[in-house]
Write a structure and sequence with these properties.
Layout (H helix, E strand, L loop, with lengths): L2 H39 L3 H14 L7 H13 L6 H20 L3
Length: 107
């Protein structure tokens, strides 16, 4: 092994670690978004838990956040909640900051 090989392996390990952290933060953010939307729709605790899981699952449909935004806007509108896309995007940004903070705080 050369120093170059060691550095390359270290960079690959760091990249994998960073990707895992980002995945966890995004999943946490989506759960928080689901809980935020569930409160607006007046769901019970059991329904809130199931809905939050459905929002996390919705993120796997396509790359990026558009699938989650579409789901939230559609579900909130169907439930009679007066909400628009910019409101959901603002909530997404707010929940991203909260999720990142929760993940980075020592337990």
């Amino acid at each position: 092994m050369t120093t170059f090989d060691d550095r390359e392996r270290a960079f690959e390990n760091q990249f994998a670690h960073d990707q895992e952290i980002q995945f966890r933060i995004t999943a946490r953010r989506n759960r928080l978004l689901g809980e935020w939307a569930a409160v607006k729709m007046g769901l019970t605790a059991e329904e809130t838990d199931a809905y939050a899981k459905a929002v996390v699952q919705a993120d796997f449909e396509e790359a990026g956040d558009e699938d989650v935004i579409r789901k939230l806007v559609g579900d909130l509108t169907s439930a009679g909640v007066d909400v628009d896309e910019p409101t959901v995007r603002a909530a997404l940004e707010e929940q991203t900051a909260i999720a990142r903070r929760q993940f980075m705080e020592p337990k």
